[in-house]
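Internal ticket - ligand job 387, pyridoxal-5'-phosphate:
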Amino acid sequence: MEGVTTQSALLPTYGHRPLSIERGQGCLVYDESGRAYIDFITGIGVNALGYSHPRVVREIQQQAALCIHTSNLHLHPYQDSLAAKLCEWSGLNRVFLSNSGSEAMEAALKAARARANRAGRTRHRIIALHNGFHGRTAGSLAVTSKPEYREPFQPLVPDVVFLPANDVDALRNAGGEDLIAIVAETIQGEGGIFPLTPDFLHAIRSAATRHDALWIADETQCGLGRTGARFAWQQHPGAGRPDIIVTAKPLAAGLPLGATIFSADAGAAISQGMHGTTFGGGPLTCRVALAFLEEVDRLLPAIRDNGLYLHAQLRELACPIVKEVRGRGLMAGIEIDAPGEPYVRKALDAGLVINCTHGNVLRLLPPYIAGRPEIDQACAILRRILR
Ligand SMILES: Cc1ncc(COP(=O)(O)O)c(C=O)c1O
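stdout (structure tokens):
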């Protein structure tokens, strides 16, 4: 048999940065030599309670000793409670638990199709947004706009139309009786941290209602406390409520768990046997998620405060290379007038972990436990490397 190194046996889907993380504590990660780095990307928004959070560790250890996996053939004590908690958080009605953001989006798209089919509709147009990112599986990729992600895999799921974000007129003109869903991140993450305006969110709600379509709010990156609210759309109450919310990333504080949260009407499209998952919603992830949501509720005021402080500090960086600072709460994008990747490397050399999205946007997704000292430290490094 031909010998391979571990690295070469991996499909080369990622270019790894020169940091091998051995462990983490709070807002810090440590490499194998023991060097500490402030982590302001947190596994792309997943480790929202930081590293080795005592409650998360305790819940994992206790549940691992009891039962890790049951499959959905059997009940366990945490699934129903988690679903109820997500309904309480969102004001929606039914939950499907899966393993990732992409999978949560698949469930949303399937529900939109099934709902339209039940109504005897034969055409299924979906509106998505330029710069939108919803995942890499076949359905979620079809509503993701980036050509580099899409092109190699054509033909994708058909009948998706892309509109510019925040263009209310374009949205008004794009409706039609074949429209079954409008898919949008409340704050575009991967696309460069672009918040949707309250007017545009309102226009999504109106267009969806007018055409008997579903508003699918993808809050995989911006939801679950990240912006200082339970969900980012709730910061614009005048816009109304989505029909489906897609969420994942930090939900189980580092363990894989996705959730699709449905209104009664949207959820009614899926009945027994129509959709499923082997791993989704197991006892370990659900128990940790319940603990995570409790911790987030406690942290929301601090997230709001520290988010305002972070954005104020970023706006004061006063580096000519910085074109714009965007985002809300502990979700920030610094658009610079240069390719971002070299600055990600410089930040890493200086002890700060961030990443770059959209080519020239430095993305910060600090842990919810980050306070002013960590924000000051991170901003000092950013100021130094961006000068
Ligand atoms: C808004 C949004 N939706 C969906 C996804 C896909 O999530 P996952 O990578 O867990 O499949 C992501 C991932 O970055 C995301 O940011």
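Auto-summary: The pocket of pyridoxal-5'-phosphate is lined by residues 44, 100-102, 105, 133-135, 185, 189-190, 218, 220-221, 248 (CB under 6 Å). The two ends are 52 Å apart (CA to CA).
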